[in-house]
Design a protein that fits this description.
Blueprint: H1 6-21, E1 32-39, H2 57-64, E2 67-73, H3 78-87, H4 113-119, E3 123-129, E4 147-151, E5 163-166, E6 169-172, H5 177-191, E7 197-206, H6 214-220, H7 237-263, E8 270-276, H8 298-301, E9 302-303, E10 305-308, E11 317-324, H9 328-336, H10 352-355, E12 367-371, E13 374-378, E14 382-384, E15 390-392, H11 408-426, E16 455-457, E17 464-468, E18 473-475, E19 479-480, E20 490-491, E21 499-506, E22 510-519, E23 528-533, E24 536-541, E25 570-579, E26 582-592, E27 600-608
Parallel strand pairs: 1-7, 1-8, 2-11, 3-4, 3-7, 16-21
Antiparallel strand pairs: 2-9, 2-10, 4-5, 5-6, 8-10, 12-13, 13-14, 14-15, 17-27, 18-21, 19-20, 21-26, 22-25, 22-27, 23-24, 23-26
């Protein structure tokens, strides 16, 4: 196209697009928005992707009635994808560099899709797994959501009758966690049916533990596995069956919400979006792609992405151009006509012209993926993997035959792009990789070290601050109940030299109530513990003894190594203490230990009372 024609072409396309997005007669100017986000579901876990072992008709219906992004890329793990979706920016820019111990927190100067929608008058609610910060102002209700129900951490260890957070307070629920959170989402839609709303439903499944409702498991527990993982010898059949059982339960809950929208006559003017946060959490069918969760190969980062808006978007439309989680914020703000909040530059593109089948110039692009110092880059037809090997993703989705010798110029170009991206994101110089021989460059891989950013405490607008074990530091002989900090608790507290430490930033001088959630063998009850922050001290006694059994009947399959087996914790009120504004460590230690141990501790809760 001649250069002098392009401005006229672009202006015409913009006019056509604005007319297409104008409200139809009888429709509100602002569509509702419902977003489903699966946890650890791979591209191949859906019947719409060609999996004949699972039935996901309700999720599939979103694609059939709308648009499917055929080459859609997320991150290798959970919290980075959520940060990119919420902000439209690559997660290293946003402060998210891990999945636990505070490293999952989204920097406070980042603005989210929910911030934008709330500022435009939308009712906003989130129901499920948040995973971008637990304490205010990292909490979802400080990031644009009017209401929140679920668990703010990444991994949750109880899927049946789980303790969950309801706007800052822990409550005991009844039923399967996905069903319970969906119930809350349905109530939110009912309550806000007469105004524009944003209902965000980040599911907990099929993330482990392997725990599916009995009726779903019974339907799949003897099913023959006929479509195998790319690395078939590493597939565990029962894990595949359980993951698919959890997917069928999830599909049922998607159907409940779609039915509610139809019953309330909201279906036509509601944008419904469905995607997942990373590749599959076990080796199972991915259509021949290489990789799974935690890996930057195609199978670890390609997700389904289905989007429907019956009033505006074409049905059954498939978009072949590459896209990613970074594109969702600019796309959804454009579709809803809502201005962005914040002025940080975006990495994502507005996909609206592709969704609407508008004639437009769509420049080539690269999408980068990173985790644990590994970086890969995807173009429309190629991927340069984390070791510097180049693959043709159209002809070779399994990444079996490197093309570096056949296409050295392209390999060099993409290697340079990765090195430049690494320096931009991390400020690190690259070391050129030897293709196939290891990581390309130096990097900061995530670990379980506690994030150095202090935990804010004492906001009057949100006076309750929960300090879970995952965000604290065990010292001495104390350790976590599992290698994975999320949903762990502190154990092996046996000595006066032991301590538990959280780095706090107390915002308000005042009186604070301190409670702990604990278990303790009956014979060990009576330890005297001290909580200290700056000059403040509060002592209390760990009693009565409370020693419930571990939950052994919640899991469909044995819990993976490194995952805590949970139990019922009891809440003990230590009392009230005056805390002064300022930063410093809050330390729990034992002054007297009459038995063999002090207690197991899941969380400390600090509440500003005056």
């Amino acid at each position: 196209m001649p250069p002098f024609i392009r401005p006229l072409f672009a202006a015409t396309a913009l006019l056509i697009l604005s007319l297409a997005l104008a409200p139809a007669p009888g429709l509100s100017a602002q569509p509702n928005l419902v977003i489903f986000l699966a946890d650890d579901a791979g591209w191949g876990d859906y019947s719409h992707s060609g999996n004949t072992q699972v039935s996901t008709p309700h999720i599939d219906s979103i694609a059939k009635a709308g648009v499917s992004l055929d080459r859609f890329y997320v991150c290798p793990v959970c919290s980075p994808t959520r940060a990119e979706f919420l902000t439209g920016r690559y997660h290293p820019r946003t402060g998210v560099r891990g999945v636990s111990t505070g490293q999952e927190r989204l920097d406070l100067d980042e603005k989210t899709l929910a911030d934008a929608l709330k500022a435009a008058g939308y009712a906003t609610g989130a129901f499920g797994k948040w995973h971008n910060g637990s304490q205010w102002p990292y909490h979802p209700m400080a990031r644009g959501f009017d209401t929140y129900f679920g668990h703010t951490s990444g991994h949750w260890g109880e899927y049946f009758n789980a303790p969950l957070e309801d706007e800052g307070r822990m409550i005991k629920t009844e039923g399967y966690i996905v069903d319970v959170c969906t119930d809350k989402a349905l109530g939110f839609i009912d309550k806000n049916k007469n105004k524009p709303f944003f209902c965000y439903v980040p599911f907990t499944t099929p993330h482990s533990p392997w725990a599916a409702p009995e009726e779903d498991w019974n339907r799949l527990k003897t099913k023959a596995i006929t479509q195998r993982a790319t690395l078939a010898d590493q597939e565990v059949d029962d894990e595949t069956r359980c993951a698919l059982a959890m997917m069928e339960n999830q599909d049922m809950n998607v159907g409940r919400i779609l039915t509610k929208l139809k019953e309330l006559d909201l279906e036509d003017n509601t944008i419904v979006l469905y995607f997942s946060d990373n590749g599959p959490n076990s080796f199972r069918w991915t259509g021949g792609m290489k990789g799974k969760k935690g890996q930057t190969d195609e199978g670890g980062i390609r997700s389904v992405c289905y989007l429907k808006w019956p009033a505006k978007l074409p049905a059954g439309h498939t978009i072949p151009q590459i896209a990613g989680a970074i594109d969702l914020l600019p796309t959804l703000t454009a579709l809803t006509g809502v201005p962005r909040v914040g002025d940080k530059p975006l990495d994502g593109r507005d996909l609206t012209p592709l969704l609407m089948k508008t004639e437009t110039i769509w420049p080539d692009r690269m999408i980068f993926s990173t985790w644990a110092s590994n970086i890969s880059v995807r173009t429309q037809n190629h991927r340069l993997d984390n070791t510097g090997q180049l693959f043709d993703m159209v002809a070779d989705p399994g990444q079996t035959t490197p093309l570096n010798n056949k296409e050295p110029e392209l390999a060099a170009t993409l290697t340079g792009a990765v090195n430049a991206w690494r320096k931009e994101m991390y400020g690190l110089e690259a070391v050129a990789p030897v293709p196939g021989k290891g990581k390309g460059g130096k990097g900061k891989g995530p670990a379980n070290a506690v994030d150095p950013r202090p935990i804010p405490v004492g906001y009057r607008e949100f006076p309750i601050t929960m300090l879970p074990a995952r965000d604290g530091e065990p010292r001495g002989s104390v350790k976590r109940s599992s290698n994975a900090p999320n949903c762990s608790y502190f154990v092996n507290w046996t000595s006066p030299e032991d301590s538990l430490v959280w780095l706090l930033d107390v915002k308000t001088t005042g009186r604070y109530e301190i409670t702990i959630d604990y278990t303790c063998p009956i014979a060990d009850a009576g330890s005297v513990i001290e909580l200290a922050f700056q000059e403040a001290r509060l002592t209390g006694k760990v009693e009565p003894g409370w020693d419930p059994p571990l939950y052994t009947n919640q899991d469909t399959l044995p819990r993976p190594d490194g995952e805590s087996t949970m139990k019922e914790f009891r809440t003990l009120t230590l009392g009230e203490v005056e805390l002064k504004a300022g930063q410093g460590p809050m330390t729990l230690r034992a002054l007297e230990i009459p038995g063999k141990s002090v207690m197991d501790l899941r969380r400390v809760t600090v509440t500003l009372v005056e």
